[in-house]
Automatic annotation (TrEMBL):
Record-annotated Lon proteolytic domain positions: 154-238
UniProt signal peptide: 1-28
Keywords of this entry: Signal
Pfam families: Lon_C
Organism: Streptomyces fructofermentans
Protein name as annotated: Lon proteolytic domain-containing protein
InterPro entries linked to this entry: Lon_proteolytic, Ribosomal_Su5_D2-typ_SF, Ribsml_uS5_D2-typ_fold_subgr
Sample GO molecular function, one term: ATP-dependent peptidase activity
One of the protein's GO biological processes: proteolysis
Length: 263
């Protein structure tokens, strides 16, 4: 039958199922999440009335400046994301369309995901404490660190937690602050050996950081390209791979001498 149709008529007939599919997909839920810049929190300060970092067993120092961990906000695992939502997010710089399983790898049950993220945050806090105390040569048996951050899950605040602990206990090592009085933001997981790991949504996190006053952003080195893709004006990127290297970069930035890495 198709071989007897003229070419224009044949194309029209073939296009009908495609048009119908597109029309249906415009309203059908798709396996994506739409993300946007989320909250930031100063780990050197308070969150909802409670100190983010509490240390006992060792003297702490008064700090200046801010170390802001960053987040993204995404549509929930049970949200209905349509083709229109995807197309809108695709063309906006303050939105990102991400596969659902990359945002919620643990399943589609909301309670299960919340439990998973809370557990990831708890492990991240424990590891961040271990990495910071190891960097400072302190024993975890002597110093107790409590980290508290409401309504945030996952492991991506690990680096900022470690830096906050270092700043409260030792600063730059010579009486100054790691921040140099600046508002510094960043992201990155951390392991017990102080190695910084990559995270997701970096381009959105830089926007959240600049919105909340940051002028410097610490980014896992492997994600420099993502961070540069939508980098807000007035925000300087410093790529990092280890806690030790991050502290060295911040000290160099504070004192205005020595190399400060760049993407």
């Amino acid at each position: 039958m198709l071989s007897r149709l003229t070419r224009p008529r044949a194309l029209a007939v073939c296009a009908l199922p495609v048009v119908a599919l597109l029309a249906a997909s415009a309203f059908a839920p798709l396996p994506f999440a739409v993300a946007q810049p989320g909250l930031t929190a100063n780990v050197l300060g308070e969150n909802k009335g409670d100190p983010v970092i509490t240390i006992s067993g060792a003297p702490t120092r008064r700090t200046s400046g801010e170390l802001r961990m960053t987040t993204i906000e995404a549509t929930g695992p049970d949200a209905s994301v349509s083709l229109g939502d995807v197309l809108d997010g695709w063309f906006r710089t303050d939105r990102a369309v991400m596969p659902l399983d990359s945002v919620y790898p643990s399943g589609d049950d909301v309670e299960e995901i919340e439990d998973y993220n809370a557990e990831q945050m708890r492990k991240s806090q424990d590891t961040a404490t271990e990495a910071a105390l190891d960097y400072l040569g302190e024993e975890s048996d002597d110093i107790e660190v409590t980290l508290k951050l409401a309504d945030v899950g996952g492991p991506s605040a690990g680096l900022l937690f470690s830096l906050g602990i270092v700043d409260k206990l030792d600063g730059d090592g010579s009486g100054g602050d790691l921040t140099g009085g600046r508002t510094i933001a960043g992201t990155g997981t951390i392991d017990a050996d102080g190695k910084v790991g990559a995270v997701g949504g970096v381009a959105l996190k830089t926007q959240a950081a600049r919105r909340d006053g940051a002028t410097v952003f610490l980014v896992p080195k492997a994600e420099c390209a993502d961070a540069e893709s939508e980098l807000p004006k007035g925000l300087r990127l410093i790529p990092v791979t280890t806690l030790k290297g991050t502290v060295s970069a911040l000290v160099a930035l504070e004192k205005g001498r020595g190399p400060v890495p760049s993407c």
